[in-house]
Write a structure and sequence with these properties.
The complex is a heterodimer of chains A (117) and B (215). With 117 residues, chain A is an alpha/beta fold. Chain A has helices at residues 10-22, 33-42, 59-69, 104-116, and strands at 2-6, 26-30, 47-51, 75-79, 86-89, 94-99. Chain A starts with a strand and ends with a helix. The chains are: A alpha/beta (117), B alpha+beta (215).
């Protein structure tokens, strides 16, 4: 599995990327929505993990652009406000919301759920 | 609505804004610390399974932990300082302290707007401010919000505490854009100025706000 992590907290995404790598999941990371849009145009990902609250393009704004550019690409949204874990099918993309910070096991389980659907 | 109700509402909104920002910042610190802890556990597991542990990698994780504990400590310190603006003796805070507190409270807002905020004080601003510290923080914060709203991404804003003969001022200056000439006439700023007995003047061809007590 090849995933892209997007969060303005560089030390957070780099640590998550390293931990996913140790579990056999290839993870690149960028620290802005704008960089995510550019990265997805040069690399094909199986899934994108987005922080909801970022300076510049927010997570939801980035999701809208990426979903339009890459129909069918699934997303995991991380938010400090999400109280209930939930997933939804927007038609063009499947999106799951997780509370931030998410346990690595929950993140991987959600990744597998979204990419196997 | 009575003026006092409006002031209470404004104070509550200010606290809510600061609390939301602090909660977000602390949550990010906890998230980083959680991942760093998880990474150490992963590295330990790998070492148990025969992969050599790189001391430099471990040291880098430890440094990251210390850095984010310090970052979280700064957030709680500024929250505590703001809380105590309401109950500590008014003569106990210097102009410098108040400027630095406002700078710390506003740092995340500036960072989100990609504006570099510089807070400084001249030598004379070790003088104490014996007025309403909480209201002054609100006033300075509102001025900084306006400053950042007028800046393009990558711009610079500054807050300077300055003292001169028998008086003092705070100056909020921006690099790009300009403050509107009628900025001080807005209800929030006008209300805070009335309560504090302060004036906010737009100076330097709109590039600065000078915040001074009424003489």
């Amino acid at each position: 599995m090849n995933v892209l992590l997007v969060d303005d907290e560089e030390e957070l995404v780099s640590a998550i990327a390293e931990r996913l790598g140790l579990r056999g999941i290839t993870a690149d990371f960028v620290t802005s929505g704008k960089a995510a849009v550019a990265k997805c145009r040069e690399t094909r990902y199986d899934l994108v993990v987005l922080d909801m609250k970022m300076p510049g393009l927010s997570g939801l704004e980035t999701l809208e652009i990426l979903a339009a550019d890459h129909p069918g690409l699934p997303f995991i949204m991380l938010s400090g406000h999400t109280e209930v874990r939930q997933c939804q099918d927007t038609g063009a993309s499947r999106v799951c919301f997780l509370v931030k910070p998410a346990k690595i096991e929950d993140l991987i389980a959600t990744m597998r759920q979204l990419t196997s659907a | 609505m009575q003026p006092e109700d409006s002031d209470n509402q404004g104070g509550a909104e200010f606290i809510a804004k600061i609390a939301a920002s602090a909660a977000h910042e602390l949550n990010n610190c906890l998230a980083v610390l959680g991942e760093q802890g998880g990474l150490v556990a992963d590295l330990a597991w790998m070492m148990q399974n025969g992969r050599p542990l790189d001391p430099a990698r471990l040291a880098a994780v430890a440094e990251g932990v210390k850095r984010h504990v310090a970052r979280a400590g700064e957030v709680t310190a500024s929250l505590s300082a703001l809380a105590h603006t309401l109950d500590t003796p008014r003569e106990s805070a210097t102009l410098t302290c108040l400027a630095e507190l406002c700078g710390a409270l506003f740092a995340r807002f500036a960072a989100r707007a990609k504006v570099r905020l510089d807070v400084s004080a001249d030598a004379g601003s070790t003088a104490c401010f014996d007025g309403d510290h909480f209201a002054l923080c609100r006033l300075l914060f509102a001025c900084l919000e306006e400053a950042v709203a007028r800046q393009p991404d990558g711009g610079e804003a500054s807050l300077v505490a300055a003292a001169d003969e028998g008086g003092f001022s705070f100056v909020v200056r921006i690099e790009g854009g300009a403050f509107p000439a009628d900025f001080a006439e807005g209800p929030e700023i006008a209300g805070l100025c009335r309560g504090l007995q302060f004036l906010v003047g737009v100076t330097e061809a709109g590039k600065a706000l000078k915040i001074t007590p009424v003489k």
